[in-house]
Design brief:
Rossmann fold; 209 residues
């Protein structure tokens, strides 16, 4: 039997939230309903799965993810939408959503997502935490320091980076030292690992349904 989950249903119309809650109850899960991301983060939950309406007009799933991150909450988030356009799906997954489901939700599709999440919840939380922390550190870099990090991640030497950025190797060394200091990295490999953990260049693949 599928393990019971607490589903936190966020955003959309009251009718849509009620329909999702009814489906969740029918499948044996407990459901909580929130009008928007602000209501969710007023008293953020400590467990469960968040079903966040991805409406770009109010920040969508990305806003929910940011709000939870600020509160230090790393719950799995599934974006939902009656019109899952590819660009919105990619943006939500890059922001940290674990899945993207079309509305109205089909029972078998929800169970599929919850089954996968229950297997990956711990790994997801750890990855999400690392991603947010890495992005926070990288955000402190100057534009030039960020460029040096990007080229360093490509495996380029100081000499190659200098040629690509049209600056001297000595200037690259200075930017690189400042970048390493801001990232708290003792070795170039640590800086590269932070860039990878930040997931700034792409997102996980997802099957819409």
């Amino acid at each position: 039997m599928e393990q019971q989950q607490t589903l936190h249903i966020v955003g959309g119309s009251s009718r849509s939230r009620a329909e999702q809650a009814h489906l969740g109850f029918d499948l044996g899960h407990h459901c909580e309903i929130y009008a928007d991301a602000a209501e969710l983060t007023q008293r953020p939950p400590g467990q469960g799965v968040v079903l966040a309406r991805d409406d770009p007009a109010d920040g969508g799933a990305a806003r929910v993810l940011r709000g939870l991150s600020v509160e230090g909450v790393w719950l799995p988030v599934v974006a939902t939408s009656p019109d899952p356009r590819p660009g919105n799906v990619v943006a939500a997954i890059k922001a940290g959503a674990l899945d993207y489901i079309s509305l109205p939700i089909r029972p078998e599709r929800l169970q599929q997502a919850l089954s996968r999440i229950s297997r990956e919840a711990d790994a997801y939380a750890a990855t999400r935490r690392k991603m947010v922390e890495a992005r926070s550190r990288i955000a402190n870099l100057s534009p030039r320091e960020r460029e040096v990090l990007d080229w360093l991640t490509e495996g380029c030497s100081n000499k190659v980076i200098a040629r690509e950025l049209h600056i001297s190797p000595r200037t690259v060394e200075i930017h690189r030292a400042n970048m390493m200091s801001k990232l708290g990295a003792e070795h170039p490999s640590q800086a590269v690992r932070l860039k990878i953990e930040a997931h700034l260049d792409g997102g996980s693949q997802v099957v819409m349904g």
